[in-house]
Amino acid sequence: xxxxxxxxxxxxxxxxxxxxxxxxxxxxxxxxxxxxxxxxxxxxxxxxxxxxxxxxxxxxxxxxxxxxxxxxxxxxxxxxxxxxxxxxxxxxxxxxxxxxxxxxxxxxxxxxxx
Length: 114
Prior knowledge:
- This protein is mainly α and 114 residues long.
- It has one domain.
- Helices cover 80% and strands 0% of the residues.
- The protein is built from four helices and no strands.
- Helix 1 packs antiparallel against helix 2, helix 2 packs antiparallel against helix 3 and helix 3 runs antiparallel to helix 4.
- It is globular and about 50 Å long.
- The chain starts with a helix and ends in a 5-residue tail after the last helix.
């Protein structure tokens, strides 16, 4: 399961990275307009996969993974909302909330890393 996570994360990172070799100018707003749904969808799919993996791990007796879903469940709508609402406020606030939830996740469940 962890191997699937690594592959999914790699593809999500590859989608969010523009190809800088083709252009002399970089219009990140245009990149986001054109490619945003792709990388936001990949991130949302990755979070849903994490939620499902946590459920599966809980059934296998990995207790802390089930508790992790208390935060992961809140990440799902925050990751999906920007796909449907192209409003600038939603496009800015949702990633900030998602970043905050991810930092909280690391502090709560993996304090040795922080």
